[in-house]
Amino acid sequence: MKIGIDMGLDGTGKPATMDLEELLATRLLVQGNSGSGKSHLLRRLLEQSAPWVQQCIIDPEGDFVTMADRFGHLVVDATRTEAELTRIAARVRQHRVSVVVNLEGLDAEQQMRAAAAFLGGMFDAERDHWYPVLVVVDEAQLFAPAAAGEVSDDARKLSLGAMTNLMCRGRKRGLAGVIATQRLAKLAKNVAAEASNFLMGRTFLDIDMARAADLLGMEKRQAEMFRDLERGRFVALGPAVSRRPLPIQIGAVETAARSTSPKLMPLPDTAPEAAADLIFMPGPEELRQAPRRHIPPAPTPTADILAQLTAARPSPQSQPTKTEGALPEVDAAERDRLLSAVMQEILEDPDAAYRSDAVLYQDFLVRCRIRRVPGEPLLLRAFRRGLAVARAGLDGEPEDGTAWRTALDLSKSLPDDLQGVFLLVARAAIERAPCPPDAALARAYGTHSSRRARKLLTFFEERGLLVIRTDFHGKRIAAFPDLDCETTASDPDAAETNGELPHAAE
Predict the structure, then answer these.
(1) Quick check: helix, strand or coil at residue 101?
(2) Does residue 430 sit in helix, strand or coil?
């Protein structure tokens, strides 16, 4: 079925339409300086296509949340963890709900990480959920910068990788990228190059005009026309719009952004003496004690909500009456034994090391229900801590319990995903076993990269938690100053021994 999206009028006054099916297959790039009408264009496209296709809007300024009232979009507040955003994105694709991901209020690095997590969740959705989705990213230069900026390299790589996946590999997964940017020169070339449709608005810098003209197949002398374009006027080219450069005047929209352009208004007629009193003298309201600002409660993490939903509920028949007495107390030792058994079952799966903690946590909750583990289910943070200890391969407490408790305390200063690796090496030192090879460290971290595993040891050493030395045979030894122990020498390139620590030579 061919759907034509009415974008406005062309240069001759005729309706300018965009083929929606062709757009889903070929992607779109919108460029224009601030005030050229990019957001208005995106809003027109979204409003006209809303009845026909699922939409996902990455909104850094919160301008598109007004789409929710008129078209039923669900607003996803990005003030969540990356794991929560990834799971929400997967459910968005599963249930085909149009959403606006509101990044307003986050700093630049947080916006990049949140957008990367959400786009990653949509990209990694199960094949059965690969329905067509129009993914609109406003201010795309923030998420796919052409050069490194003030944000960390890790955040930039995550965001750039997600944008590259969207534009390069998203088509086969049903994801159609529509990206808008103020300057083409600030947008990564490998992201911009994947678009086959272009809508170029007003711009003034020579480098941006030249690049826009090049993308539209125009001569360099024609690039000057982009300086003269009025607000809301664009030059379109692409299989979804026109095979030749076509000027378009974008039509009206039904919704409006929360932020508007500033309007001039006359200044108040205030005498200088009165102005000084207004500025330097506190008003009556300030003299009274200001009421405490109501701080809304922090949103409950999705993992905690799922834990409450999956908790076993007693049937009405099994609830004790007043004469029956209270429920029996939970045997803490039995509960810990069952939890350890469930943890061990999960880690016995060869692929468990390469799954996210969020996925393992859901599996853990289900297994706890099957085994009828008494008591409240572990929260996600407690689960991660228990998983880190279990990944260290410890069955009971080592003979040197004091050193092991010190190692547990030291691990608390590390991020959750690094604690399992640290405890694995610490256990080897306490038991005077060979230092785990790179393959074992990589598996504990959930990666196949031995190079990354070696970087983890360097990170621990920089934090002063351990000291790495090499003997005369090129074998590695990890010493722990706080534990007063060290591992025996071992080859870092040795093969992993089924996830267990190799034994020292007799």
Answers:
(1) strand
(2) helix
Q: Quickly name the fold that domain 4-250 has.
A: Rossmann fold (3.40.50)
Residue ranges of alpha helices (H) inside 108-199 are 108-123, 153-164, 189-192
Closest CA to 341 of 318, 367, 319, 363: 367
Torsion of CA 234, 238, 244, 248, to 10 degrees: -20
3-class DSSP assignment, residue 27: coil
Q: CA–CA separation, 136 vs 59, rounded Å?
A: 8
Which CATH architecture fits 392-486?
Orthogonal Bundle (1.10)
d(CA 238, CA 248): 13
* Residue that the structure tokens 């997590």 belong to: 117
Gyration radius from the chain CA atoms = 29
Q: Which of 177, 185, 182, 215 lies closest to 201 in space, CA to CA?
A: 182
Give the integer Cα–Cα distance in Å for 71 and 46: 10
Task: Look up residue 418 and give its amino acid.
Answer: L
Closest CA to 114 of 421, 48, 484, 105: 105
pLDDT at 398: 53
Global pTM exceeds 0.85: no
Domain residue limits, the chain = 4-250, 303-309+331-390, 392-486
User: How far is residue 442's CA from residue 437's CA, in Å, rounded to a whole number?
Assistant: 9
Q: Where are the beta strands (DSSP E) in 23-73?
A: 28-31, 54-59
Nearest CA among 50, 2, 479 for reference residue 239: 2
Q: Are 186 and 213 in contact (CB under 8 A)?
A: no
SS3 category, 175: strand
Spacing of C-alpha 441 from chain mean position: 25
Q: Are 152 and 110 in contact (CB under 8 A)?
A: no
Residue 35, amino acid = G
pLDDT at site 487: 92
pLDDT of residue 388: 73
Phi, psi dihedrals of residue 221, rounded to the nearest 5°: -70, -20
Alpha-carbon distance 212 to 189, whole Å?
A: 13
Give 273-288 pLDDT, tens digit per residue. 677 777 777 766 666 6
CB-based contact 354:385 (threshold 8 Å) = no
pLDDT value of position 502: 46
Q: What is the mean pLDDT of each run of 10 residues along the chain (506 residues)?
A: 83 87 90 85 91 92 87 90 91 92 89 92 90 92 84 88 89 90 84 86 78 75 76 88 87 80 73 75 64 58 67 52 49 78 77 70 81 78 75 57 82 82 87 88 80 85 88 88 89 68 42
Neighbour tally for 503: CB within 10 Å: 11
Helix (H/G/I), strand (E/B), else coil: 335: helix
Kindly list the distances between the CA atom of residue 70 and the CA atoms of 47, 50, 73, 389, in Å, as whole numbers in the listed order: 9, 10, 8, 50
Map residue 231 onto helix, strand or coil: coil
Burial 129-161 (b: 16+ CB within 10 A, else e): beebbbbbbbbbbbbbbbeeeebeeebbebbbe
Extract the tokens encoding 125.
Answer: 């959705």
